[in-house]
Design goal:
Length: 162
């Protein structure tokens, strides 16, 4: 973060690996299980907090791009923000084409995907593209937490499998 190293908890997820299952909390406080999405392609974007400028831009961009991906590709954004804050933020900025999930309770996603930042208990900025069979087809762990991901590469990977 700003040139200083951070420690990530969990195993690094690579292309060709099975996408780990995880649980998170939806904005309506209902439980979400990634395994319930099996059979569909998916982009998962992890962000430190939707209430920061770079995360705000990233979530808005994926929401905008979702319209062009078609119904066969879901986009999930996962952060440690509380579901109440996520719901308020999504409503205020009009994010309605993607699913925003909270990992605050168990850090299940962060640990399973190797993006939980030990020092901050936030998620690193990363993007994963998972195919219909549940195999990881693209990953990007953004080296500097204040940088945006490579949207083009992630979206191209999703279009190839969608």
């Amino acid at each position: 973060m700003k040139g200083e190293p951070l420690t990530l908890i969990g195993e690094e997820i690579g292309v060709g690996m099975p996408a780990p299952d995880f649980t998170a909390v939806s904005n309506d406080l209902s439980p979400f299980r990634f395994s319930d999405l099996r059979g569909g392609a998916c982009i998962i974007s992890s962000v430190p907090s939707i209430d920061t400028p770079v995360c705000d831009m990233e979530v808005r961009r994926f929401n905008k791009e979702a319209a062009g991906l078609g119904p066969g590709v879901s986009i999930l954004v996962v952060s440690m923000d509380l579901p109440f804050a996520q719901e308020r933020w999504c409503g205020a900025v009009g994010v309605d084409r993607i699913r925003v999930l909270s990992d605050h309770r168990d850090a299940s996603f962060g640990a399973a995907y190797g993006v939980l930042i030990k020092e901050l208990r936030l998620l690193a900025r990363a993007v994963f593209v998972i195919d219909r069979e549940g195999t990881v087809r693209y990953t990007e762990l953004v080296k500097e937490i204040t940088d945006e991901p490579d949207y083009g590469a992630a979206l191209n990977a999703a279009r190839e499998i969608g």
